[in-house]
Amino acid sequence: MADPNAVFQNCYYVGNNFNAILYGVELVLYFASVTLILSAKDKSNVDRRFFLYFSTGLLLMITIYVAVQAVFGEEMWIVHADYQGGSAQYLADNAAVWYQTLGSAASVVLNLMSDGLLLYRCYVVWGDVRIIAAPCILYLGTLALGILTCYVSGRPSADFFVGKSAQIALAYSTVVIGLNAIVSALICARILWRARQMRGVLGEDVVRTYTGAVALIVESALPYTLFGIAYVVSLGLNSPTSILFLSIYVMFTCVSPQMIVLRVLMGRAWSREAATRTRTAMHFTTPNTLGGDSAYTGTTARSGDGDGEGLGTDAVNVHLRTFPSYAGSSQRDFSDVDKV
């Protein structure tokens, strides 16, 4: 049977490598977002400024986490390579060092920021605040448990992966991942339902922008949720591989919301107006009293500058056309479709 400490140390090392790779991805996404924000004509737009501050906050928190993990690994493997009892004893004696507590606090703040954005996106996709009522209660629970986790695991001689600290961390992580899973499922279900409604009316090309596989994965922050589930399961089983899943999960706590922000800035994400229009502006053909037929009217998304959501999105306008019916013919002309 493999030595648990050896497995843990290897997973910690691999996790740090994944941290470095995904940190590079985050930098690319961040600077792409900042470029879009600063190149916009309306630089005073409130939503754009919010995305700038939000993205910078995400980058700051993930930088703290990555630096803490790297420094602790260096101290454990290089600076104190000859520590009495080896790396396992060094971990047990120094797991509660002040900068590890700082890293834990940074990950809790990241979760709060990411889940807050995910809740807002769920509201945007559904357009009904009642849908997020229960998830909001769970969100408040994650705040309380996150603070408690930082306090308990930061006490002298405490260890995040052992004893009461591990139990509280498991409770915190379970509530967080439960919240992620619920909100992600709500977003996925809504997007798939909208796709089914819109496909027959607007065509595959237009619908794919808002309801395709990429939209589904990004809007629901699916990687964030899936790696979170893997982490909770491994932590609950007391597996030494939990540190690897924790590293990847925390990185996607930053990368997934940054992908959502970039998609919004590119004008390819769901907006409040787009969701409202797809809900209310599709009317099917009905016969009129003059012997003619009236085709439906539909509008999705919007174009031009707006409040920061769906910026630069193509709008599809299907204009009302009335035309006579001829004996033996049920032909309808739906060719008057403009893409603006």
Features:
340 residues; mainly alpha; 3-stranded antiparallel sheet; 68% helix; disordered C terminus
Summarize the structure.
68% of the residues lie in helices and 5% in strands. The chain is mainly alpha-helical and 340 residues long.
Question: How are the strands of the biggest sheet laid out side by side?
Answer: 1-2-5
Compute the CA-based radius of gyration: 25 Å
Tell me the overall shape: globular
Number of strands: 6
**What structural class do the secondary elements suggest?**
mainly alpha
User: What order do the helices and strands follow?
Assistant: HHHHHHHHHHHEEEEEE
From the N-terminal CA to the C-terminal CA, the straight-line distance is 64 Å
Helix content: 55-70%
Count of alpha/pi helices: 11
Residue share in β-strands: 5-15%
Please tell me the overall pLDDT.
Answer: 77
Q: What's the story with the biggest beta sheet? A: 3 strands, antiparallel
Provide a descriptive summary of the structure in words.
This protein is mainly alpha-helical. 68% of the residues lie in helices and 5% in strands. The protein has helices at 4-38, 46-79, 86-94, 98-126, 133-153, 163-202, 204-211, 213-219, 222-236, 242-265, 272-280; strands spanning 286-287, 292-294, 298-300, 316-318, 322-324, 337-339. The strands form two sheets. Strands 1-2-5 form a three-stranded antiparallel β-sheet, with no helix packed on it. It has a three-stranded antiparallel β-sheet with strand order 3-4-6. Strand 1 and strand 2 (292-294) form a beta hairpin. The chain starts with a helix and ends with a strand. Residues 280-340 have low confidence and may be disordered.
